[in-house]
């Protein structure tokens, strides 16, 4: 025993001293060059040499760490006293911390619990999604069996109902366990910070784009808020214009005088999208696409756009994609939400109106937002769904929420274009506190839709739906999709805080939505698709029964496939990265 300790004392101490010296040198380099990782590409040769030396020091540190660990393995811990055991354990802990001392802003190494691995975040969300897909499949099959049993074997109906109830509890428990990972994995602070950092980054770029130093010489893209459609559709028209302007690096000029919702224009309801540049004139003017030298380009509606630029949904900026993919379950929804965040900054009058109405209604969490679409779209663009279908998902949300916390009152914010829906819901579900304003529903009727009262009503509905903890609606409605997009601004990742009764998320005029097969599939029925791993499939929709429908781009087959066997393909485009913002800041500093 004394010989072993002597071995540690005479050999280990020298190595320990060397390790601490190496760590000190590395910390010194990091302290002297905090922006090393972001300036490697443009730094001089000396900086590159410093990086090389720092990496060499880190490699030496690792090798000596391994040698020390080998020495510790040779020591019989059982023969040491408590003080000696504690000393060795503390030193081993220090070695581990030293090895991870470089953070993500330097050489790519991170301290434990500082940032999650991208694959971890993707896998966590995939488990959550596939748990739901498994339940959709089981639930659908049990309902089919129950329906048949009611005709040929009524005695089995109660047993199947029991299985449905038990299966739902099981699914609820699994979802709870998956969500608990975000509570215990140590990355909650990172998610909040990354969400804020990304938002601040793009909002700063938007502000820079929209406020050029010289409006008279600035390149401009002119967009008229004149699309003949409803409020949600017109918001998406404005978002599309902004996407193209951002991609083309042209200041967006929004022409909104005579807007069908408010004749005085956008700027009376929301803040101007530019503080310094609102003049649409220029030395040269052309309709889309114009050319690089054209100062002012007029943009048509997305349906008439030709040629189509690469900046359209579902593409997100390539330079943001790695961060977005790790942070968020649906990057395009986050991207659209950020543009809406910039566009929908309310004027003081609008903000006061929203706040006063929320206070008057008693808007309080927890609350589920429900949007029931009726009137002109039902029977043409969308199928009819009764209030019971919506409330079944509201019930399930609260049943799940009560696993995590006490719920003082089950609340719903109900928005609809039919005032009778509010009365029906309150009569059928008296144990719920159902918040809503029937006068807003009346103004949403086709005959009064394009009035100031209707405009304020739809602004209120979308705001309160987006502020909800969970959203139950039909994604065939643009009002619902806008609320879902804005909701992303209130959480690091709200991509799973919804239940659509019909469509998956889409953006009107988008490019193809493709998914990638991660598992092969051999059809069991004639309606099913043959899939090889790696196949690209253009998705048409999820049937919420375990299967989705689409076109296999390799075989051109249109058929159903198991939803869990694919993953979304994240589309990217080379948007500008607005690096001059940071050069300007460096010069100012």
UniProtKB/TrEMBL annotation:
GO terms for molecular function: glycoprotein 6-alpha-L-fucosyltransferase activity. A motif (SH3-binding) lies at residues 307-313. Residues 373-374 are annotated as: Important for donor substrate binding. Residues 217-501 form the GT23 domain. The chain crosses the membrane at residues 12-36. Keywords: Coiled coil, Disulfide bond, Glycosyltransferase, Golgi apparatus, Membrane, SH3 domain, Signal-anchor, Transferase, Transmembrane, Transmembrane helix. Residues 510-571 form the SH3 domain. One of its GO terms (cellular component) is Golgi cisterna membrane. It comes from the Eukaryota. It is found in: Golgi apparatus, Golgi stack membrane. It catalyses: N(4)-{beta-D-GlcNAc-(1->2)-alpha-D-Man-(1->3)-[beta-D-GlcNAc-(1->2)-alpha-D-Man-(1->6)]-beta-D-Man-(1->4)-beta-D-GlcNAc-(1->4)-beta-D-GlcNAc}-L-asparaginyl-[protein] + GDP-beta-L-fucose = an N(4)-{beta-D-GlcNAc-(1->2)-alpha-D-Man-(1->3)-[beta-D-GlcNAc-(1->2)-alpha-D-Man-(1->6)]-beta-D-Man-(1->4)-beta-D-GlcNAc-(1->4)-[alpha-L-Fuc-(1->6)]-beta-D-GlcNAc}-L-asparaginyl-[protein] + GDP + H(+). One of its GO terms (biological process) is protein N-linked glycosylation. Its main location: Golgi. SUPFAM superfamilies: SH3-domain. It is a single-pass type II membrane protein. It is an enzyme of class 2 (transferase). Its EC number is 2.4.1.68. Residues 48-101 form a coiled coil. Catalyzes the addition of fucose in alpha 1-6 linkage to the first GlcNAc residue, next to the peptide chains in N-glycans. Belongs to the glycosyltransferase 23 family. This is Alpha-(1,6)-fucosyltransferase.
